[in-house]
Amino acid sequence: MPEAPASRPAAPTLPGRVDRISVAGADLRCLRVGSGRPVVLLHTLRTQLEYFLPLIGQLDTTRLEAVVLDLPGHGESSAPPVDYTADYFTDAVEASLVRLDVGKTIVVGDSIGGTIGLTLAARANPRVAHVIAVNPYDYGVRGGVRRSSRIANLVFTFMLWPGIGTGVAGSGGEWVLRRVMEGGLHDRNILPASLIEQMNRCGARPGHARAFCSLHREWRTWIAARDRYPAIAIPTTLVYGLEDWSRPDERAANARSIPRTRNISLERCGHFASLEVPQAIARLIHQAAAEG
User: Cβ(251)–Cβ(139) under 8 Å?
Assistant: First the structure.
């Protein structure tokens, strides 16, 4: 008898309440879990809100409310036909804070989420009280993700080519997604199969391949965000995994440029820190909440 096809990993059940909000021309999926001080979680490039499920499980949701967005062009959010610059994402998150009516917010972002959080702080957004920027994505000629692995360098190089970039962004499937993400982990066994399956499925949504390609082609805007960091006037925690794609000189430059920043290094940790060491990130969030 022929073998039965392998079953897909079951999608994890989301805790809390899932809402939809319309901002910056996009329809965004938003998860809210718990009650109390709001903690806005902003995911990495190409992932989605399920990325933060291990971290949410470590939070005291009797005192904190986790507010988690699928950024435009990611997850189950829509992908409007715009240029996916650092400013566009920051504008969308800024509008989301108003739409969700959250204030005195701790913004926690990984990768592009970290850069968005720092840019919000540099804009002196009145709803943001503390930023925890985890491995912020603001380095690397033609995109720091190219440092993940040889396959990532190849794929992301092709994405920059006119005429074929969008096709490349929409191809490859779960195998490529897994290889790229494994290149950002100390322990590749920590990567959930269900997350890769969800990312692959959501990446086939209308406009998502174009959005991802645009985000990568706008790599200069993520580097330019660093010029604004000296304007930050609120408490900031800058967190790097010691095996992150960023280089020591790039990390040191950020630490020098951000006033009032606390600098944290995480051992046995790569780029996807909230997935790999959620307990460590949760401790920093609880500490920020206790400090007011």
Answer: no
d(CA 219, CA 127): 27
Q: State the Cα–Cα distance between residues 111 and 241, nearest whole angstrom.
A: 11
What CATH code is assigned to 17-140+222-290?
3.40.50.1820
The span from the CA of 167 to the CA of 287, in Å, is 44
User: Burial, 133: exposed, middle or buried (Cβ in 10 Å; 0-12, 13-18, 19+)?
Assistant: buried
Q: Quote the tokens at residue 271.
A: 């780029």
- Reported pTM: 0.95
Whether pLDDT at 165 is above 90: no
Buried b (16+ CB within 10 A) or exposed e, 29-40: bbbbbbeebbbb
Is 70 exceeded by the pLDDT of residue 160? yes
Q: 46: helix, coil or strand?
A: coil
Q: State the greatest distance between any 2 C-alpha atoms of the chain, in Å, as a whole number.
A: 67
Residue 106 pairs in a beta bridge with: 39, 130
In sequence order, what DSSP letters do the residues of 180-244 get, joined into one string? HHHTT-S-GGGS-HHHHHHHHHHHTSTTHHHHHHHHHHTHHHHHHGGGGGGG--S-EEEEEETTS
Q: What is the mean pLDDT of residues 266-285?
A: 98
How far separated are the first and last CA of the chain, in Å rounded? 64
